[in-house]
Amino acid sequence: MTTMTQRLTPVLCLSFALAAGACSDDDNGKPPPKDSSPQDTVGGTEGSVPDQGPPADAMITARFCGSLEDEAGAPVEGGDVVVCNEHECHTGTAGVTGAFCVHVNKAGDYLFHAAEKEIGSKHFGDMMFPTELSEAELQSKAKVDLGTIVMPLLGAAQNLDPAAGGTLELGAGKLTVPAGATVLPPLTTEAKVALAVLDAAKLHAQLAAAVPGGKTAEAAFVIVPIGVTFSSPVSFELPAPQGLAAGTALEIHRVHDEQGKLVLNGEATVDGSGKLIDVSGKGLTGLGVMVFVKK
Q: What is the pLDDT of residues 127-150, one digit of tens each?
């Protein structure tokens, strides 16, 4: 995927620059130390990955732990994960069973982010959701179980020229971007855009719970690169899930890649052919992890 070094926020740092070593747990740019104590290994099985340790001056730590798997239930070995609050990020890598643990040293709200990555012949999209660590959990050095995170499998990628725009055929759907509409990050070269259609029933519980108003997700998609936004809504066509009648109006909510909250990202309707299409002028305003709910 195209590197977007213009965005230097901690969350996108992992997505676009982890391979270059640009992310760290502290402010001095050094990678986080690893805690090699036996009790801090994931799962305790051969080939498991040690927890990524906190900065050396941290006196109290807790851990966010879980596992990555694909939609078929197979572990995603080598997937990169990050948990960020408003001040810092902590990173880790999934082991052979897909399991990971990441140390954190402050209570509060966090964004969990499993980053886009090509592993073998599969290209996985990002998965993000808000989570939190209470003061009591921090003080007790709790192991916070995030459970299983299903990684979305992306289809074939298409090039987006930010200056020319154009219609991108993304396998199960398509996206039409007007010339010059891409504003953040300020892309100067082509970016590869790809789509994953998610089973809304398999969304992580914390993402489903974050939908505003307690509404139920009717459909879910990931369109990468995350963090790309537009000066005006862009039109799209995506497959509608079964059970939604023609004319059903939907809101689109996107996981904000810095704040971790779900933010309104446009509107859609179901057309007569059973596809989700944008209502004129109210399509997507940004790419990323999105859920669609009834208005």
A: 999 999 999 999 999 999 999 999
